[in-house]
Design goal:
Elements (H helix, E strand, L loop, with lengths): L4 E10 L4 E6 L10 E6 L3 E6 L8 E5 L3 H7 L6 E8 L10 E6 L3 H13 L4 E7 L8 H7 L1 E6 L6 E2 L2 H6 L7 E5 L2 H14 L3 E4 L15 E2 L2 E2 H4 L2 E3 H4 L8 E3 L5 E3 L1
Parallel strand pairs: 7-8, 7-11, 8-9, 9-10, 11-12
Antiparallel strand pairs: 1-2, 1-6, 2-5, 3-4, 3-6, 12-15, 13-14, 16-17
The protein binds flavin-adenine dinucleotide and FE2/S2 (inorganic) cluster.
Flavin-adenine dinucleotide binds next to strand 4, strand 5, helix 1 and helix 2.
Length: 256
């Protein structure tokens, strides 16, 4: 079992009304797309992508329940436990990329876009959110990519869902990376597979150990924590559960 390290919160940034970034006082060496298991003392341990991995280290978290809400109430100087990094991360390769992100999916994709930009690849980003306030990493992404935005309520960018925006940005790209709600990623993957375009999607499943021991994160016989969280289009196209079913904490299969 990977050793639990203690980190201190060095800085907190409010990214949107529901999403905050927490910077740690130490850098954790990780590949873009890898995740950690975060222990919030006295509450719970849960998986989170590393949202910044180059020189600084952060997580970017949406408050959705007890663990994430407790984290949102914490202050600079408070201590957290982390295990990892775990998982494979994105295969960054070469060539121009389209990055499609919705919700807090940008947390896993920001380090990938930064690394592609450092490697001299041209990156287009399709960024979607429910409304203008919830668009994540607009400033950072617009400095390192050609960013286009959309919102469900039309309050910023195009008035459409992000898959519609992405469909209009596919021409001329060599590959696609996506992270966000699974139904959204399923549409992106289907679009790419139809066109024969290489695509990678970062999946979420309920995780207990984060390192291949408990099988709580299973999808079609693979473990999201160890075989993923990033899967390629060729693998995703054969998965019956992708975009349709996930497992609850007891292991029962439930519809997404
Ligand atoms: C690989 C991976 C990377 C993730 N990266 C991020 C990220 O960068 N930012 C972010 O905001 N969220 C991320 N998540 C989701 C995050 O783990 C959940 O939002 C968090 O666990 C919720 O915990 P809670 O106690 O606040 O909510 P709860 O009330 O306990 O649960 C709310 C919902 O969160 C999900 N969840 C709860 N516990 C777990 C768990 N142990 N494993 C997986 N899902 C769980 C379930 O869908 C549940 O219905 C990631 C999940 C995975 C699997
Ligand atoms: S979380 Fe335990 S095997 Fe993946």
């Amino acid at each position: 079992m990977s050793k639990l390290k203690t980190v201190k919160i060095k800085e907190i940034k409010e990214e949107t009304p529901t999403i905050k970034s927490f910077y740690f006082d130490r850098v954790i060496k990780a590949r873009p797309g890898q995740f950690i298991m975060l222990w919030v003392p006295g509450v719970d341990e849960f998986p989170l992508a590393l949202s910044r991995t180059h020189r600084k280290c952060s997580i970017t978290v949406k408050a959705v329940g007890k663990g994430t809400e407790t984290l949102h109430s914490m202050d600079v100087g408070d201590r957290l436990g982390i295990r990892g990094p775990y998982g494979n991360g994105y295969d960054l390769g070469r060539g121009d990329a389209l990055v499609v992100m919705g919700g807090y999916g940008g947390a896993s994709l920001l380090p990938a876009v930064e690394a592609l930009n450092r490697d001299g690849c041209k990156v287009r980003v399709a960024l979607g959110a429910s409304c203008s306030d919830e668009l994540l990493f607009v400033d950072e992404m617009s400095k390192i990519s050609r960013l286009e935005q959309c919102t469900d309520d039309g309050s910023a960018g195009r008035h459409c869902v992000v898959t519609e925006l992405a469909a209009d940005m596919l021409d001329g790209v060599d590959r696609v990376l996506t992270c966000g709600p699974e139904k959204m990623m399923k549409k992106v993957v289907d679009m790419c597979v139809e066109r024969g375009l290489p695509v990678q999607a970062s999946l979420e499943r309920y995780m207990k150990c984060g390192m291949g021991l408990c099988d709580s994160c299973t999808i079609d016989g693979l473990q999201v924590c160890r075989d993923g969280p990033v899967f390629k289009g060729v693998e995703l196209a054969t998965m019956e559960e992708f975009g349709r079913f996930e497992r609850d904490p007891t292991g029962r299969r439930v519809s997404i």
